[in-house]
Amino acid sequence: MKTAVLGVSSSKFGELWDVSPRTLVSQTANEVLKASQLSIADIDAIYVGNMLSGILGNQENLGSFFAEELGANCAAFKVEGACASGGLAFHNAYLGIKSGAYDRVLVIGVEKMTDHKPDEVASGLMGAGSEEERVSGITFPGLYAIMARAYINKYKIPKEYLASVAVKNHYHGSLNPKAQFQRAITIEKALQSTMISDPLTLLDCSPISDGASAAVLVNEKNVGGKNKPVWVIGSGVATDSLGLSKRDDITSLKSARLAAIKAYKQANVKPADIDIAEVHDCFTIAEIMALEDLGFYQKGKSGKAIFEEKLTLGRSKELVVNTSGGLKACGHPVGATGVKQIVEVVEQLRGKADKRQVEDVRIGLTHNVGGSGAVAVVNIFKRAKDQ
Amino acid sequence: MNNISPVKIWRNQKKIASLIGKIGVIESFTIIFVPPSGFEGQVPYPVALASFGKSKLTASIVDCDLDKVKIGAVVEVVLRRVKKTDREGVIPYGAKFKLISK
User: Fold this and answer.
1) CA proximity to A24, closest of A57, A37, A42, A41
2) Which residue among A5, A94, A245, A352 sits deepest, i.e. has the most Cβ atoms within 10 Å of its Cβ?
3) A149 touches chain B (CB under 8 A)
4) Which residue range is the domain that position A12 belongs to?
5) For position A3, what pLDDT does the model report?
6) What ranges do the domains of chain B cover?
7) CB spacing of B29 vs A119 below 8 angstroms
C-alpha cells in the first residue's frame, strides 16, 4: 500500500508559557485536519510522539489524553524514543497505513518543556541515557561534548567548523516565522558564547522549547483534494546501546548509519539523489556526524563543507540541510522535532516553504535521533510526479 | 524524579564493587558547567569515558586539577558519593574516577 502525506502543520516553536499541551495539540491538530480537508471523525488512529510528559508533567496515557481533547474515540498511541519520539510516531503511523490496517492517520509530535526548571529538564532528558551515565552526573550536552572532543581529536577539525553549523542553521531560522530563534549569528559570536559542557558552548546547543507538529498520512486511495500527495518512499529505524561506553566508535552513530541503509534501500535512492535534508542537529557536532552517517560525506569531511557554505540555502548547488533552522535555531521540543522535520520537507517538496524555498526539490530526507544515538529514524519523501 | 531507590543501590552493590580499583585510560571527556538535579554543588566537574581494555566506563573525575584532565590520562575507579541526598536522606554511592600518575 503506497503511503502519502496529506496535510502538515506546526505551531510556533519557543517559550510558550501561556499555552497548555492540550491547547497546543488541539490547535495544531485542527490546522492539519483543515489542511487535509478532513475532520477528526475521518481519522482511524492517532500516533503521539512525546518523551517527557510523564517524567516532568506526571501525565501519561497521552494517546487517550489527546484523543479526548480532539473528541475522538479511535485507536491512539503514545510512541516514545527520547528525542526521536516524533520520528518513531511517524514510522508507526506509516506502518499503520502500509499494513492496510488504517486508511487515514494523524501523527502529532508535542513537548512542553519550559513549564519546568532547567535542571529538572536536564535530569528528565537523562532518562534517555544509561544508569551509568545518570550516576556520572553527565547531561546531554555532556554526552555530545564527549563525542565532539573524540571527533575533533581524531579528525583534527577546528572549532570554527562546529560553529559554522550554528551559523548556517541560525541563518535558515531567520527565514522561518515558526522558529524559536529568528536571528542570524556569526562564527565569532558562537565561539564566544557561554561554556555549557566543554568543548560545547551555548550556541553549539539546541534550546529547551515548547511546540507541536502534526501530519496526516493516507493510503493511495485517499489522496486527492487541494494537496498534491507527497509519497513516503522509505522509513528505516535502527537502535544502538543506550550509553556511549558500550560502543566501539563514538565519532559516528551506528543507529543512524543502519537506519539510513534501510531507508535508502526501500526508497531505491542514493545519498546523491537527496535534494534537501532535515537532520538532527541537537548539538553542532551532531549535524557533522549526521552528514557522514547519511553518506553525504566521507568521515571527517563534512565540517569543512558546512564551513564553506556548501549546504546553505542560496549558496548550495546540490544538497541544502536544515532549511527550517534545524533543532538549533527552529527549537527542539523533543517529541515534536521528528514530526517538524517532516513538515519542513513536505512544504519544501510542495514548493510552499516561502523564503526558505529550495529550487526544484524532488526528494527529501529526515534524520531524527534519540538519546546519544540509541535510536535513529530516517525517512525519505518524494513529490508527486505531475507537480 | 530525583528520588533515590535504596533497593536499586543495594542491588547494584556487587557491580560497583567489581569496578573499584580498576585502572583505565581516558578516551574522551567533558567538563560540565550546567549540571542535572543533585549535582549543583559539584560544578565545574569533569566526566570522562575511559577504556579498561575490553570494557569502558563513563564516570566523573573527583579531586582533580581540571588542566590535568586529558585524552590518554590514566584513571583509577574509586567509590564516592554520587550526588546530593534526597528527602529521605539516602546517600547514593557509586563509581567515580581519580587521576593517577603512571
Assistant:
1) A57
2) A5
3) yes
4) 3-117+209-222
5) 97
6) 6-99
7) no
The total number of structural domains in chain A stands at 1
For every residue of A27-75, DSSP letters joined together read HHHHHHHHHTT--GGG-SEEEEE-SSHHHHHS---HHHHHHHHHT--SE
Catalytic-residue membership of A280:
no
Owner of C-alpha cell 536522606: B89
> For residue A106, what is the domain's CATH number?
3.40.47.10
Instruction: Please list the residues that pair with B31 across neighbouring strands.
Output: A198, B46
- Rounded Cα distance between A79 and A81, Å, is 7
The residue of chain B with its CA nearest to that of A195 is: B33
Q: Which whole number is the average pLDDT over A154-165?
A: 98
Question: Is A205 an annotated catalytic residue?
Answer: no
Determine the Cα–Cα distance for residues A109 and A213; give it in Å rounded to an integer: 5
Question: How close does chain A come to B50, measured CA to CA in Å?
Answer: 8
Q: Taking residues A40-47, report their average pLDDT.
A: 98
Tell me how close the Cα of A160 comes to any Cα of chain B, in angstroms.
18
Cβ–Cβ gap B56/A196 under 8 Å: no
- Whether the pLDDT of residue B64 is over 70: the answer is yes
Any domain includes A48: yes
Placement of cell 581524531 in the chain: A154
CATH for the B6-99 domain, from 1.10.3470, 3.30.450, 3.80.10, 2.40.50: 2.40.50
> Nine-digit cell at A8?
502538515
Integer CA distances (angstroms), A238 to A235, A253, A378, A383, in order:
10, 10, 9, 25
Is the pLDDT reported for residue A12 higher than 70?
yes
- In this predicted structure, what is the pLDDT of residue B4? 76
Q: What letter does residue A315 receive in the DSSP assignment? A: T
Q: What is the pLDDT of residues A300-351, one digit of tens each?
A: 999 999 999 999 999 988 999 999 999 999 999 999 999 999 999 999 999 9
Confidence of residue B2 (pLDDT cuts 50, 70, 90): low
Q: Cβ distance A375 to A369 under 8 Å?
A: yes
Which chain A residues contact residue B39 at CB under 8 A? 137
Percent of chain A with pLDDT over 90: 96
**Smallest Cα distance from B68 to chain A, Å:** 14
ipTM of the predicted structure?
Answer: 0.96
Residue A387 has pLDDT above 50, yes or no: no
Is residue B1's pLDDT more than 50?
A: no
What are A241's three cell numbers? 546501546
Lookup: cell for A285: 557536532
| Within a domain: A64 | yes
For residues A343 and A9, the answer to whether their CB atoms sit within 8 Å is yes
DSSP state of A273: G
A17 is a domain residue: yes
